[in-house]
Design brief:
The structure holds two protein chains of two kinds.
Chain A lengths: L2 H15 L6 H16 L8 H16 L47 E7 L2
Helix pairs in contact in A: 1-2, 2-3
Chain B lengths: L1 E3 L5 E4 L3 E7 L3 E9 L7 E10 L9 E6 L13 E2 L20 E7 L3 E6 L4 E8 L2 E9 H4 L10 H4 L6 E2 L1 H6 L15 E3 L9 E3 L3 H10 L4 H14 L3 H16 L3 H4 L14
Antiparallel strand pairs in B: 1-2, 2-12, 3-4, 4-5, 5-6, 7-8, 8-9, 9-10, 10-11, 13-14
Classes of the chains: A mainly alpha, B alpha+beta.
């Protein structure tokens, strides 16, 4: 069970970027914390610290209104064009730490332009 | 202001007040325009609001606001980036991975020019302040830009300006000495300078020849030349020629084949020798 390792990573990330609890940046770090915890879930069965930490993270998610933390991709009605290369075997219950979507636009390359200037 | 739509239409519009440029499932951009000179229907942009919408793992919502003399290099919540951290970035300072996150702001010139990149949308948005007004440019994948184009509602970048809001630039450029176009001030051709420190200072709109000479110094072509001349003839403010130049430069930098889409025309619309 690597719950302590996840906690250390979270603390380091929070300190390094100096984010405030409740900010969007905090939600990002919290999401990674959550992913790390989930990745170690199997080996943490019956581990009190693990379950306490999971509960704590869930509470922070709620308190900070981090709606997208751990949420399904494409929620909110937005098409998931940019998630096409998300790993096929992604499992929300036991993802790997680095099992995040690439978040790079994968659609057709044809680009267009709009401009607004002058009087 | 002058509008280049996603379909490549060039228009000059009145559009006083707040108007949406883009409004789809991913992105909302709106502008506020104010009259440039008393008595004229021509306006210029004083505020730009950009919302990169959330709703996925890749896109926490981010709002950006720029106003005259306030072009910040951060979103309204103070952040400069958004989205999941790249794998293995835990414990690293944010400067080490900011360029890898989906949404970020890049300050190109402090207080004057920023670029907003939304990598998950393949989008680049440019906000500038030139003179006393703001300019906007966007590069988007066509399927993102035109998403929801068929639904009700205004999106100037998608649908262009309503017919009632359009100004015929050709009439203005050719109309010198042949009556007054509605975009021209009603009381002669003396206007308040937008760059003067004295609020009461009045300047004269440039003549056609003077405007052409100045706009040519910026190597403007096709509609960018026309828009430059229109602005100088209606306001006399030379900073608008710089705005047109920046807009043309953004056009060339954002679209790989932009040069092929413009006519190599250094005479204004309809002028003799335009061929």
């Amino acid at each position: 069970c690597k719950v302590d390792s996840c906690t250390r990573q979270f603390q380091q990330a929070a300190m390094a970027s100096g984010v405030r609890r409740g900010s969007a940046a905090f939600c990002v770090i919290l999401r990674q914390y959550s992913d790390c915890l989930r990745s170690t879930a199997r080996s943490c069965r019956g581990h009190l610290a693990y379950h306490s930490t999971i509960t704590l993270v869930q509470n922070w998610n709620g308190d900070s209104n981090c709606s997208y933390v751990g949420g399904a991709s494409g929620a909110g009605g937005a098409p998931a064009i940019f998630n096409k290369d998300r790993p096929r075997n992604h499992d929300h219950h036991s993802p790997k730490v680095d099992d995040s979507p690439s978040c790079t636009y994968q659609g057709r390359p044809e680009v267009t332009h709009c401009s607004f200037y002058g009087d | 202001p002058h509008l280049v739509t996603f379909n490549g239409d060039f228009q000059t519009c009145k559009v006083a007040g707040a108007w949406p440029l883009i409004d789809n499932a991913y992105l909302a951009v709106s502008v506020t325009n104010e009259a440039v000179v008393p008595g004229s229907s021509a306006t210029a942009t004083t505020k730009i609001t950009i919302i990169i919408k959330g709703g996925s793992d890749c896109a926490p919502e981010r709002t950006y606001e720029a106003a005259v003399d306030s072009v910040p290099a951060s979103f309204v919540d103070g952040s400069q980036w958004g989205g999941p951290l790249p794998p293995g970035s835990s414990g690293l300072p944010s400067s080490a991975f900011e360029h890898l996150v989906p949404v970020r702001i890049v300050e190109k010139e402090p207080g004057r020019h920023v670029e907003i990149h939304a990598r998950h949308l393949g989008a680049t948005l440019i906000v500038r302040q030139v003179g006393r007004y703001l300019t906007f440019a966007a590069k988007l994948p066509r399927e993102i830009a035109l998403q929801g184009a068929g639904r009700e509602g205004l999106q100037l970048c998608v649908k262009g300006c309503p017919a009632s809001e359009r100004i015929d630039v050709g009439t203005v450029l050719l109309g010198s000495g042949h009556g007054r176009h509605p975009s021209m001030p009603s009381s002669g051709r003396f206007y308040r300078s937008q760059t003067s420190e004295s609020p009461s200072a009045l300047v004269k709109g440039m003549t056609r020849d003077a405007a052409l000479a100045l706009c040519r110094e910026y190597n403007l072509t096709d509609y960018y030349l026309d828009s430059c001349m229109f602005d100088l003839m209606t306001t006399g403010d030379p900073s608008f020629s710089l705005a047109a130049s920046r807009a043309q430069a953004d056009y060339f930098s954002l679209l790989p084949d932009a040069a092929n889409r413009l006519a190599n025309r250094t005479w204004p619309l309809g002028a003799s020798g335009s061929s």
